[in-house]
From TrEMBL:
<keyword id="KW-0503">Monooxygenase</keyword>
<comment type="similarity">
    <text>Belongs to the NtaA/SnaA/DszA monooxygenase family.</text>
</comment>
<dbReference type="InterPro" id="IPR011251">
    <property type="entry name" value="Luciferase-like_dom"/>
</dbReference>
<feature type="binding site">
    <location>
        <position position="104"/>
    </location>
    <ligand>
        <name>FMN</name>
    </ligand>
</feature>
<dbReference type="InterPro" id="IPR016215">
    <property type="entry name" value="NTA_MOA"/>
</dbReference>
<keyword id="KW-0560">Oxidoreductase</keyword>
<dbReference type="GO" id="GO:0016705">
    <property type="term" value="F:oxidoreductase activity, acting on paired donors, with incorporation or reduction of molecular oxygen"/>
</dbReference>
<feature type="binding site">
    <location>
        <position position="154"/>
    </location>
    <ligand>
        <name>FMN</name>
    </ligand>
</feature>
<dbReference type="InterPro" id="IPR051260">
    <property type="entry name" value="Diverse_substr_monoxygenases"/>
</dbReference>
<feature type="binding site">
    <location>
        <position position="216"/>
    </location>
    <ligand>
        <name>FMN</name>
    </ligand>
</feature>
<dbReference type="GO" id="GO:0004497">
    <property type="term" value="F:monooxygenase activity"/>
</dbReference>
<keyword id="KW-0285">Flavoprotein</keyword>
<protein>
    <submittedName>
        <fullName>NtaA/DmoA family FMN-dependent monooxygenase</fullName>
        <ecNumber>1.14.-.-</ecNumber>
    </submittedName>
</protein>
<feature type="domain" description="Luciferase-like">
    <location>
        <begin position="16"/>
        <end position="391"/>
    </location>
</feature>
<keyword id="KW-0288">FMN</keyword>
<dbReference type="InterPro" id="IPR036661">
    <property type="entry name" value="Luciferase-like_sf"/>
</dbReference>
<dbReference type="Pfam" id="PF00296">
    <property type="entry name" value="Bac_luciferase"/>
</dbReference>
């Protein structure tokens, strides 16, 4: 390909699916009679094998290292505990053959020599199906559990992340080749030191595929330089097209091709045989996602006080929040806003739209922008349009029910997409890199010899 071509984005005309099995969240209906457990292996086995039957590219686990707490209790919207990602993915490797296994791991509290080794282990165990979703983790209450305490400033987190990922790549690159023995990797930086010779050979896909999640300009530039796939927060069509344009520009500026970084936004699907049934189902799903207690608990995060005497089906509390500013322990939704100002704004918004507490909280917490609701055929037509223009490379789907939430997607939506020629009929290969259509990295001295 010429330099000119590499700078112009070429849509693949295809989309792929990943499954995002959530832990800490309000999107999965854990309390429904049909819901499984977030810790039983059977939940994971059912969902990963369903995904593989539907030719999903990847099974994805996020990372929440500490529960959010407020008023001295774990946050009522959070699921209490979910097994460690790498342990679970190693077990899932044994009951699957083709699907990629993505572990979210942060760069702020890990160390590169150790993490590179653990990810290599997963990559070898799975026959080249491992991926690492690189995140920096944006809260101090997580940091309080690590020996350094606290956490890094935003700008420092990405500097640290860059050095971390480059060091991990150097370790993966340093295994012996026909041109020489394994090489020692030395790094002495502000946050960690490394003096390591790799202990494991390359996997069938060379090294784990790198995902990235983090949406600031620094996060996007970091992804443009380092990542293979972005787990994005931009699923809506126009927003997805704009995000693609932005990432293409950043990856070309970083000296990589326009197609170097794939994009898979977070998404939710509420499907049925007809559009009307799907709309009715959506109302039911939403009512279960945010029950009365969850609605009150959500507001308590921001108000900093007990609100249990308020009617979840009534208006937002007239009483003011007890604090002016939130602390970082009080939930990720806040992001430094002033509590009283926010309460005024929300009361006005809820009044304007005629929303009760529960309806208002649902509108704030549900994946409103990320939800595809409709008949199988209507949603398939809509997704085919994403494929045609190359708005995304795929979707990372959060099922609203575990473990059966993917069944209708695999049984009904996937065949509709296959009929339209926009979704794989089969896995291309056995490694994640092959199945995503990513190029194999080449070590610089090998490139010279080749
Ligand atoms: C779609 C998406 C998913 C994320 N998933 C996780 C996660 O599972 N665990 C985590 O610690 N952080 C997660 N993050 C947060 C990132 O770690 C990052 O700290 C945060 O987005 C702040 O970086 P930013 O300012 O670049 O967005 C996620 C971010 C996005 C956009």
């Amino acid at each position: 390909m010429t330099q000119h071509n590499r700078a112009i984005f070429q849509p693949s005309g295809q989309i792929q699916f990943g499954i995002f099995f959530q832990g800490v969240n309000s999107g999965t209906i854990w309390k429904a009679a049909e819901a499984g457990s977030q810790t039983d292996f059977e939940s994971f086995r059912h969902i990963v094998q369903t995904a593989e039957r539907g030719k999903f590219a990847a099974f994805f686990l996020g990372e929440g290292l500490r529960l959010r707490e407020h008023l001295g209790r774990p946050h009522a919207l959070d699921v209490v505990g979910r097994p460690d990602a790498q342990t679970m993915l190693a077990a899932l490797a044994a009951v699957t053959t083709n699907i990629g296994l993505v572990a979210t791991q942060n760069t702020t509290y890990n160390d590169p020599a150790d993490l590179a080794h653990r990810l290599s282990s997963l990559d070898l165990i799975s026959g080249g199906r491992a991926a690492w979703n690189v995140v920096t983790t944006d809260n101090a209450w997580t940091g309080a559990n690590f020996r350094r305490g606290g956490y890094l400033d935003h700008a420092d987190r990405y500097k640290h992340a860059e050095a971390f990922v480059e060091t991990a790549k150097r370790i993966w690159d340093s295994w012996e080749t026909s041109s020489g023995p394994a090489r020692r990797v030395l790094h002495e930086g502000q946050h960690y030191t490394v003096d390591v010779t790799p202990r494991l050979p390359r996997s069938a896909q060379y090294r784990p595929v790198l995902f990235q999640a983090g949406d600031s300009p620094e996060g996007r530039d970091f992804a443009a330089r380092q990542a293979d796939v972005i787990f994005s927060a931009h699923p809506k069509f126009d927003d997805a097209v704009e995000f693609r344009r932005d990432i293409v520009a950043r990856s070309v500026a970083a000296g990589r091709g326009a197609n170097a970084v794939q994009i898979m936004p977070a998404s939710e699907f509420i499907l049925a045989a007809t559009d009307q049934e799907a709309q009715e189902k959506k109302a039911w799903v939403r009512s279960l996602q945010i029950g009365p207690q969850q609605a009150i608990a959500y507001l308590e995060q921001f108000w900093g006080r007990e609100l249990s005497s308020y009617d979840p089906d009534g208006p937002l509390p007239e009483i003011d929040p007890v604090v002016e500013e939130t602390s970082e322990t009080r939930g990720s939704g806040f992001h430094g806003a002033k509590a009283r100002q926010l309460a005024d704004q929300w009361r006005a918004e809820a009044k304007d739209k005629g929303l009760t507490i529960r309806q208002f909280v649902t509108s704030k917490t549900a994946r409103i922008d990320a939800t595809f609701t409709g008949s199988y055929t209507a949603v398939a037509d809509h997704l085919a349009e994403y494929a045609r223009v190359g708005a995304v490379d795929g979707f990372n789907i959060s099922p609203w029910l575990i473990p059966t939430g993917l069944d209708e997607i695999v049984n009904h939506l996937v065949p509709e997409l296959q009929d339209r020629g926009v979704y794989p009929m089969e896995y291309r290969g056995t490694t994640l890199r092959e199945n995503l259509g990513l190029e194999t990295p080449v070590r610089s001295d090998e490139a010279v010899r080749a």
